[in-house]
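REQUEST ID: PR-0412
SUBMITTED BY: lab tech R.K.
PRIORITY: routine
TASK: structure prediction, single protein chain
INPUT:
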Amino acid sequence: MAKGRASKGPTFELEDSKGLFSDLITTKTGVNRKKTIESIKKNLASWMGKKDFNRFRNKRLDLAIAARVNKQRMKQQDVDNIAKVVLDALRRSDKAGFKRDVFLFYDDSQVVRLLVCKIPREEDEMYNTDGLDISFRIHDPQKQMILKLVNQI
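STATUS: complete
OUTPUT:
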């Protein structure tokens, strides 16, 4: 049975966010960590490479990560490991193979608050429906970290 990619299920966004990225990415940690970081960077290149992000790259940020995962990852994958992989993919990297302008922030110490959640994906035996929603805003201690449902497919 061939596994394709299909967008299914909800997309979540941080309230008052300045940017939302949503794509079908499986956030594998452990031995596949490097490949996951490369995949996220590649998929985020058109988003993080935008000149509009220059005004955010030196700021303190609130960041939300919603990972749509299958039943097995729901039980076994730790949210802190998801966070580490995504944070590594979002920061600037001088490593070979990555464009220098494809990043959201210079260092993950700029992230003041981080909201990470696992959401059960919509199961479909014909398609891989794992996904990743990333949204951010400039840190505002007066605002709560609230995820809102953007769409339900």
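NOTES: Residues 1-6 have pLDDT under 50 and may be disordered.
REVIEWED BY: pending
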